[in-house]
Specification:
It is found in: Mitochondrion inner membrane; Mitochondrion intermembrane space. This protein is α+β, with helices and mostly antiparallel strands and 428 residues long. Helices cover 38% and strands 25% of the residues. Strands 5, 6, 7, 8, 10, 12, 13, 14, 15, 16 and 17 form an 11-stranded antiparallel beta sheet that branches. A 4-stranded parallel beta sheet has the order 2-1-3-4, with helices on both faces. A two-stranded antiparallel sheet has the order 9-11. Helix 2 runs parallel beside helix 9 and helix 4 runs parallel beside helix 9. The longest helix has 39 residues. It is flat.
């Protein structure tokens, strides 16, 4: 024993390295073991759903999964197959997986959407937007007026696999363990609790509308935020570095525009959640043909007088237009989106500090900002304006746009604990 101790003392560098390596290896193995326990517990819970008896005349519920394998730096497919797929299959769902890693698949979605009971989006913010956009392009848009009755009632599940998963904050409890976060989200789909989420329709002149469940950002914080990854070599200082170096441009950075907007709208009473039983195929085909051949339904004219519109000239360091999905209130009586116009008189030190805060919560509205509640707005940019919008963390060319709120347009599955928390907060 003394000989061993003497050897270890004489080679203390190797000994220290070996101890560190063993500690790291032990910790890694323990983490893997804990992850496997979480997966097993989730699968056992899913099995209880799969063991439920259903009448022989009732078909299996069909789920269409839109999986983005490129999410999470290409790890999304493995994460889905290890953590979510076993739970879905054990629950008794008839699962069809569609990969969203190539373009031109929009035409195939019509048939899939016609024969599905629920949609599951597996990826990040970009995948959510991509799926909504593809459905729009395939003329089965969940948001279009002529078929919204058929499709906007299809519940949507979200399995967070991407780098940014903003909806997770609303739908599921916070978790530092990725495996637990994914299994919780998948189990929430089986439990069947849903919440209605608002959608923004963003339309440029002669452009296809873009749909957002979080919102639009235009300004200096967004521009600096997209460059953070360039400074990866600075480690934890990369965020501050990106914002600090952006102050070397023309300062102060002012974004000028004209904003015209309408105030909040009164919320109509919510329809009952019970879904009618699925009609036979021939009935659905007949309804679709009748809808196709009949003249488009007449929209109820909304009396909007010129006096209802408010006009505003603005100069800001950043403008954001966001849904209320992050602060969901299931009992509110008005529908609106939040427009935040940040003051352009900001020091370089404040800009760098707020930039770090914005990376954590992009739509936070700092003190001293002008906050407006609106149901619809038109953003006019000066001619020759360059730069980009961030729409649900995806980049689009900056241009004049009309933003319209589509209230409670989509139903997303959520953890029952989160729904209870929302209702409790509303009562208080």
């Amino acid at each position: 024993a003394m000989k061993v101790l003497t050897t270890l003392r004489n080679h203390w560098k190797k000994t220290t390295f070996g101890v560190c390596l063993l500690s790291w290896g032990g910790n890694w193995l323990y983490g893997k073991h804990c992850d496997n326990l979480l997966r097993r517990a989730a699968c056992q819970e899913a099995q209880t759903f799969g063991n439920q008896l259903i009448p022989s005349s009732m078909p299996l519920k069909k789920a269409t999964v839109f999986l983005n394998p490129a999410a999470c730096k290409g790890k999304a497919r493995t994460l889905f197959e290890k953590n979510a797929a076993p739970i879905l299959h054990l629950s008794g769902l008839d699962v069809t997986v569609v990969k969203t890693d190539y373009e031109g698949q929009a035409k195939k979605l019509l048939e899939l959407m016609e024969n599905t009971d629920l949609v599951i989006i597996a990826g990040g913010d970009g995948t959510v937007q991509e799926v909504l956009q593809e459905l729009s392009d395939a003329n089965v848009n969940l948001l279009s007026s002529c078929v919204q009755a058929a499709f906007s009632k299809i519940p949507i599940g979200f399995i967070p696999l991407g780098k940014t998963c903003t909806l997770s904050h609303t739908l599921y409890p916070e978790s530092t363990n990725q495996v637990q976060h994914i299994t919780n989200a998948t189990l929430a789909i089986l439990k069947g609790e849903t919440v209605p989420l608002d959608v923004l329709q963003i339309k440029g002149e002669n452009e296809q509308p873009v749909f957002a469940v979080t919102g639009l950002r235009w300004g200096s914080y967004r521009d600096a935020g997209v460059k953070v990854s360039k400074y990866w070599y600075l480690g934890p200082l990369k965020t501050k570095a990106a914002h600090f170096f952006s102050t070397f441009k023309e300062w102060p950075q002012k974004h000028q525009a004209a904003l015209t907007y309408l105030g909040p709208t009164e919320r109509p009473p919510e329809e009952p959640e019970e879904r009618p039983s699925r009609p036979p195929l021939y009935v659905r085909l007949y309804r679709r043909l009748r809808l196709y051949w009949s003249s488009p339904p007449k929209e109820i004219p909304q009396e909007v007088t010129p006096e209802d519109w408010e006009e505003l000239k603005l100069s800001t360091v950043e403008l954001s237009i966001a849904t209320r999905n992050r602060q969901l209130d299931l009992t509110r009586t008005e529908d609106f989106m939040d427009i935040c116009i940040e003051a352009d008189a900001v020091s370089k030190g404040q800009f760098v500090n707020r930039g770090s805060q914005k990376m954590r919560d992009p739509h936070v509205c700092p003190e001293g900002s002008q906050c407006i509640q609106a149901s619809r707005c038109i953003l006019q940019l000066p001619e020759g304006t360059e730069g980009s919008f961030g729409i649900d963390n995806e980049e689009y060319e900056a241009m004049p746009v009309e933003v319209k709120l589509l209230p409670r347009k989509l139903r997303f599955f959520c953890d029952p604990r989160m729904r209870e928390q929302m209702l409790r907060a509303a009562v208080q």
